[in-house]
């Protein structure tokens, strides 16, 4: 089913990366800039992430000796330094997730570059290393994002979902970046989130039900030599019953055997290694996919097809009996 599986280290059947997006209350301020301070209910739910969720999740993964990748907006790192320290102490990878969680699609080139470079500096300052990986806030990958990441020296992105195993992105035929895709089914937001201030009104699933999806994705990846990358949030999956269910999921993975549990920086480095040695040939996606409006559209934005139909002779109406 996977035509060109990656040769994983040690002959592992699949790679697994547990990754969390630690948004905290960044997007409460973005959505309600003038009265976020008057929305204590939403602020409290969001602050649960770094304050309760992160330390709890660290304990869960420590118990099973499974590494974690944390995508943290720079602003969140500045506001919650204790959470960042705990991630580093437990050998977690701290990766880039924008500055204040602005969706890059709505930013100008200068604004997006500022958000990326600002957080690169914060990560460098607080962790002693520049970030290796990036995930776009709100899945917003703009036409500028990938070249900006290349300029910032970031090695991998995990926002595009254009495959199920790693692939390479090139831009204007220049440098490449490793894409480590995930899937919406592996995003906990879709399974649990019910939050009126943001119009998320998904019916809340029981943890075992959500984990059925995660397990099915893992079992398929294991069977066909694929990869499993979660997109979870401490404010969502750090809740007690959901965090408890993770023990069962990790045990299920460990019992299967032949699983490479890795930080995402390790997956990117491994991909670079097997590509350079010639042991594996990746699929390459060349960017940009398009430059501006496609020619099949008029400048007005109306589809050419519709205009052509107007001039076409009308077919004779069929007689009805
Ligand atoms: Zn996020």
Question: Could you please describe the fold and organization of this structure?
Answer:
- Helices cover 43% and strands 14% of the residues.
- It is an alpha/beta fold and 321 residues long.
- It has a single domain, classed as Alpha-Beta Barrel (TIM Barrel).
- Strands 1, 2, 3, 10 and 11 form a 5-stranded parallel β-sheet that branches.
- The site of zinc ion has 5 residues, from loops.
- Zinc ion (ZN) binds next to loops.
Main traits of this protein?
binds zinc ion; alpha/beta; single chain; TIM Barrel; about 325 residues; 5-stranded mixed beta sheet
Helical fraction: 40-55%
- How many β-strand runs? 12
CATH superfamily annotation: Glycoside hydrolase/deacetylase
Radius of gyration: 22 Å
What percentage of the residues does DSSP assign to strands (E)?
Answer: 5-15%
CATH class: Alpha Beta
Biggest pleated sheet: 5 strands, parallel
Shape: globular
Bound molecules: zinc ion
| Contiguous runs where pLDDT drops below 50 for at least 5 residues | none
Q: What is the string of SSEs from the N terminus onward?
A: EHHEHHEHEHEEEHEEHEHHEHEH
Average pLDDT, to the nearest integer? 93
Q: Report the end-to-end length measured between terminal Cα atoms.
A: 52 Å
CATH architecture: Alpha-Beta Barrel
Helical element count?
Answer: 12
CATH topology: TIM Barrel
Secondary-structure-derived class: alpha/beta
Give the total of domains. 1
